Protein 1
Amino acid sequence: MKLYVNCITSGAELRNDIKTLIPEMNLRRRMSRVVKSGVAAGIESLLAFGDRSPIDAVVTATGLGCVADSEKFLDALIANEERMLNPTPFIQSTFNTVGAQIALLRGLHCYNTTYAHRWTSFENALVDAALRLGAGLSQAVLIGAFDETTPSVEKILQRLRVAPQGRWGESAVFFVLTAEAFDTSVAAITQIRIPADDTAPGGGFTTQGDSEGAEGRDSRETAPEGAVPAGTADGRRTETEARQDCRAGEPGPRTGPETDDGGQSGRIREVYASQTGAAPHFTAIAEAFRLAIAANAGRRIVLYNDFPGGKASAIELTCM
């Protein structure tokens, strides 16, 4: 079955004033940066979708959760010797804070869960929503992915060789996923593929979705891993080049033949998340997802999550 993406919204590019999205001043003041950005993006997406279909599930994804509030609480815990602690940072440090705040503000008394699976958090949230829609348990699902960074977290991740020097990013992206197409639909998801074996990135994929778009797929899945495009010393393009490519609709490196025919032949254009201009972080694939849809209107694409260094997942889309 196809799943339709509606009203995709970025917390960094809100169309409405945040004061109209989160009217209560004291609530806004207590929110950390990522909570405020995520909640605002989620509410704006809901407002844009309107009453076309009832929202009966909220599924969010994050790699590290609300890092700044976690740090604030732990710092106070040490400084105050575990006495007279402000409960607000603790309450807002949990991974499900953003999804819960959206539900409270919009009165959504429904299924609400958060996935924290590092690099594939977003994909697991998509699969959960797809299963609910496919089983008829939900008509419309609000999906979001968010992550933030702080100087201390970036240093730790660099020491662990997870974050590249000075390039660890953050974002908040939300949209409404439905099984029915609406006038707000910007893309249709036809497949979600995640490696069955986490120890072998780019290996066998488990599939959620139909078999539409199978033509031309074998060349991608059997291509050698580790191929990198020309560019910098490690094979990656500069951030400026990536942004230029994204604006031009250039999908970056490919493991199969060039298929840019405007989607007329039914073949699928390959897009690598690391080449869309999104700065790497655990849920950067959601930002790459948003950018890829905007840059490939009218095309069928497969978006690879290559931020971990291999193909962590593949999402097949028909952009509208």
Protein 2
Amino acid sequence: MEQLIASGAGATGVAAGGLVGFLVGGPPGAVIGGATGALLQDGVKAAVGHVAERLTTQSERERVGSCMLLAYELIAQRLNGGEELREASFFKRRERKAQRELRSEAEELLEGSFLAARDAYEERKVELIARFYANAAFARDLDSSHLNHILNLAKLLTYRQLVIVGIVGHLDRGTVRAMDFRGSGSLRPATIGVLFEIYQMVGLDLINSTDSSYMLGVADINPSLLQLQGNGAHLFNLLRPDQVPEDDKRFFFDAIA
């Protein structure tokens, strides 16, 4: 466990003392506090144990360690700000079935988050996955099945698509093209690439048009009318891809301004 934390600290540059204290139950972990915090602590320990044995390379250890460390930091910040974790039942182990105690919903979701981070060859996704779990720990309006679905969507989408979700969620409509691409002739490869990434998310019902018009192909996309819908909004709220560095957003405006 300590090797995993050290790998994450080395990859992120974030001090690991608070997380170490939290996992061993020492004073630095007191920020979590309370009965629900103790359940969260138990779930994190168990999830780390389940995942650690499946990590075979240093890069995998760095990604999972980074995810764990960043998620802890975000949870601690919100608790220090006076927020409370979601209902205790989310973190509590479930009743026995066939003489076997079932893991908590939180523990299952955290293991899924760790495995998503492990497999994130686009390493910039790791921070977004960490935010996902940290925010899920407070998301009282979303049950575990829905959260697992959103996590699978986050795994399916590329880092750039997630950045697009962040941009559309806070879109200044005056900064992008205000008409569709029908009759536009030959388009630059960069523009075509972004349009197809958007169109895939239209097909997943993550993005639609504010005027309710159908987008039957990439040429029907009007950037100034794009908006998030359904799980697109949940991806935005849980992963907060609007908070990525501004340089990571430049491709979008260069392609469809």
